[in-house]
Amino acid sequence: MIITNATIILPDTVVNNGTLVCRDGKIDAVIGRAATATVYDVLPQSPLLQDDEIIDAAGYYVAPGFIDIHTHGGGGADYMDNTVEAYLQAAKTHAAHGTTALLATTIAGSQEELFGSLKTYHRAKANPLNRNGSQFLGIHLEGPYFSYEQRGAQDPKYLRNPEPKEYEAILDASDEIVRWSLAPELPGALAMGRHLESMNILPAIAHSNATYEEVLKAFDVGFRHVTHLYSAMSTIVRRNSYRIAGVLEAAYLIDGMTVEIIADGKHLPKSLLQYVYKFKGAENTALCTDSMRAAGYDCTETCIGSLTNGQRVIIDDGVAKMPDKSCFAGSIATADRLVRTMVEIAETPIVDAVRMMTLTPAEIIECDDCKGAISQGMDADLVIFDEHINIQRTIIGGRTVYQRIKA
Questions:
Q1: Which residue from 134, 66, 71, 13 is spatially nearest to 384, judged by alpha carbons?
Q2: Averaged pLDDT in 10-residue chunks for the chain of 407 residues
């Protein structure tokens, strides 16, 4: 695959009128001159073969494929539905919006549903039709070990403290668990964090009422990421007249703590999007959809979680909410919307907005050796989009899985 006439987005610059060469599902060469006048790889002097695919990018942006490390579903499907069809439908939906790889994310639910979702993940990943959607990079368990006070849209009847017998059985059920979001202040949570760290699984802080001091202890045992910053977490409170910092302040103060934000233009206003970008930087901030089944799907009412045991939610003003509108319930966002929001609303440079949806999440879940950047030897996971981040083509492993039909 040879992509010509492209505006190629690299981690720190843009190559104008560039050419990208891919062979056997990998990036082979980047040709062109960046704004810094750096010359990249020279096109191998080999003749075109009959089966070579030439794509004219027409001056559009060519970026690494988007990586969503927190998504519950889309296209009318949720990963807690526990069907292969639901997994494939959600993956296909997100691929049409530029996501080439994702972590399938669960929600607090019954043990039966959780173990069923783990089994279904393996079946879906092995299904040949999985080639038509975003690649599954692993599983993200969200809950059920959360603070009741910071539960958000998590069903309170499933919330509890972590017990080794329970979480070890869950870990034994799958070798594809990449991250686990929980509240570190709960009894037994620090021990669980140490255990996850020893297994090279990322413990992340989520739905937490922890103090700054409790987050420091959590960071020391491996909690180095904060799930959906600003959503369902503690901030400054007063106790006996004294102010006490919370998870939010810890996220900014602790060097080495990464965060993710739902940049749908609803969860965080322009001012907070800019605040996160200014003080955490693109290298420490990932964009995530936290999408539920209504992402990329036209509806006004649905449920979060499984179809059988999920909670009813409404779609109002471009976001999912609990019926009483007391809080958001995930999002209906897709990855292209996140990048568009950062560029057009938060006024973030395109290079940094793309980094937050590609290289930074890849670094957080430690797959940046093969994904997240356009460089020789990396996976040929690519997305082509126009100046308004409208997806024109999604490519996974050098193969087009989505192409916009032009009118």
A1: 66
A2: 96 93 94 63 53 93 98 97 96 98 96 96 93 96 96 93 98 98 98 98 98 98 98 95 96 98 97 98 98 94 90 93 92 98 98 98 98 97 98 97 83
pLDDT at 37: 47
Angle between helices 212-220 and 189-198 (to 10 degrees): 30
Q: Which of 79, 100, 99 is nearest to 88 (CA)?
A: 79
Number of CB atoms found within 10 A of residue 72's CB: 25
**Cα gap 197→199, rounded to integer Å:** 5
Domains of the chain, residue spans: 2-63+372-403, 65-364
CA–CA distance, 334 with 87 (Å, rounded to integer)? 16
Residue 101 DSSP symbol: E
Which residues, 6 or more positions from 151, have their beta carbon under 8 angstroms from its beta carbon? 159, 207, 232
How many beta carbons lie within 10 A of that of residue 298, not counting itself?
A: 8
3-state secondary structure of 193: helix
Q: What is the CATH number of domain 65-364?
A: 3.20.20.140
Tell whether omega for the bond before 349 is within 30 degrees of 0, i.e. cis: no
Q: First and final CA of the chain: distance in angstroms?
A: 25
CA 383/CA 16 separation, integer angstroms: 16
From 377, 405, 379, select the one nearest 393 (Cα to Cα). 405
pTM greater than 0.90: yes
**Strands of 307-381, DSSP E:** 311-316, 319-321
Residue 360 · residue 373 · CB < 8 Å: no
Spelled out in words, what is the top-level CATH class assigned to the domain 2-63+372-403?
mainly beta
| Closest by Cα among 305, 307, 325, 303 to 316 | 325
